[in-house]
Amino acid sequence: MPPFRRIAAYAPKGVTALSLGIAGSVFGPRDGVPPFDLGLCAERPGPLRTELGLDVHIGHGPEPIASADLVLLLPGTGFRDVPPDVVEALREAHGRGATIAAHCVGTFLLAAAGLADGLDVTTHWRHAAELAAAHPRVTVRPDALYIDHGAVATGAGAAAGLDLCLHLLRRDHGAALANRVARDLVTPPHRDGGQAQYIDAPVPSGGDDRRLADVIAWARGNLDRRLPVDELAARALMSRRSFARRFKAATGATPHAWLRAQRLDLAEELLETTDLPVQEVARRVGYRDAAVLREQFTLRRGVPPRTYRRTFSRGRPAAR
Fold first, then answer.
1. pLDDT bracket for residue 193 (50, 70, 90)
2. DSSP code of 51?
3. H helices within 6-68, ranges in order?
4. Where are the alpha helices (DSSP H) in the chain?
5. CA distance linking residue 264 with residue 286, whole number of Å
6. pLDDT at residue 225 is higher than 90
7. Which of 2, 146, 171, 257 minimizes the number of CB atoms within 10 Å of its CB?
8. At residue 7, does pLDDT exceed 80?
9. HSE (CB half, 13 Å, CA atoms) of 274?
10. 74 touches 38 (CB < 8 A)
């Protein structure tokens, strides 16, 4: 299917206010960007109480799902309910090629509809065991922030819905737009690592943290250089072992994995927003030649840099 434009966000009973805010913030109107058609729907139209006890007016039943390119299944306290009309609408949307995306306990409805059978999914780590027990044909990965199978995508709990939505935006509409939205929301366009970094694993406080943050910021600004871990550790005034441990606690990824992700994020944006030759893009993001960039880029995106550029650099206002 072409990049999504029509979006149906399904709100269950007790929908979380945070998930409503995420959907509206990521896919709401934005200057200079062709608008998305975002529709909020529920099992039936009318007032719907959020988990905070506030009522929101829902103008539609599940009808918008029938024409949506992207269906978001939002979490709520009524996540164990399985409305037959909604399940039927989801199956029909999936059958015609729409992307069905759920995060947190919204994944329960996705699984109940049978759309996750045989797939890896994620959900909030507190509910992972319940989901796995209720749906044995689904493989639950409680360590992941989000998992994308193309037609089906799932995200972890609460704020990970933002990670999932930004990922879907990047996947279908390119890095420039996803980065712009992330900047508007003052959030990273991509978080590395999994849920484990947020489960009883606070980052230690003190001077080491300030130095680590400074080194991370410095590395982001110097991606065109070789950045050996030993040099980064020395800048942070830490041993290599301490630096690697503290770095992973802070970012959820090893220094090597984090640097690779940062380099590829920058490469995506340069491919979309500039006419630089691929060799020069490779140099600016720290790869010794275009062949290395091509290999890493294809592993991440499934297409080489030139194909990616042809897809995302034409007719997209945010990429100019």
1. low
2. T
3. 17-27
4. 17-27, 84-95, 107-112, 128-134, 160-173, 175-185, 207-220, 229-235, 240-251, 255-273, 278-284, 290-301, 305-312
5. 10
6. yes
7. 2
8. yes
9. 15
10. no
